[in-house]
Design a protein that fits this description.
Glucose Oxidase, domain 1; globular; alpha/beta; 8 strands
């Protein structure tokens, strides 16, 4: 039986999503960080390189990168290759804008939650099932171990 851990934080982008966690210990940028056609992580510096973020709950400490990251994120949404939700220690505007535009352009809700009461990198592991509620600022982690 999986163990459940509830975290509370700040919901930045509304919506609810559930998916398998993909956790990066490093700051993440969508510009040159992901192939927007496939969802494959292509950043050579990231230990998740070669893994696919499509449909996953992408967990990383902070956003990194260029203002073009919003457009790359939006292209991944258009191609069906975006993460289903994002959890950060502290979100930054570039990723948040991409998720907000996803709703306006494509009717896709990709919730983002940050400022959790516990460090998500210390609680969530790749492979955990994570439920993200951007309306309420809640993250529920279902631990498999």
């Amino acid at each position: 039986m999986p163990r459940e851990i509830a975290l509370r934080g700040r919901g930045l982008v509304p919506g609810r999503a559930e998916g398998e966690a993909l956790v990066s210990p490093l700051a993440f940028g969508f510009w040159h960080g992901i192939d927007p056609r496939t969802g494959e992580i292509v950043d050579e510096r990231n230990p998740l390189r070669g893994r696919n973020a499509a449909g996953k709950v992408l967990v990383f400490p902070y956003g990194r990168g260029s203002t073009g990251g919003s457009s790359v994120f939006l292209e991944a949404v258009r191609c069906g290759a975006a993460p289903c939700a994002i959890v950060n220690i502290e979100s930054e505007p570039i990723v948040t804008i991409g998720a907000l535009m996803a709703k306006e352009f494509y009717g896709k809700q990709i919730p983002i939650v940050d400022r959790l009461d516990r460090n998500p990198l210390e609680v969530i592991e790749s492979g955990d099932v994570v439920l993200v509620d951007g309306d309420r600022g809640e993250v529920v982690v279902l631990k498999r171990r």
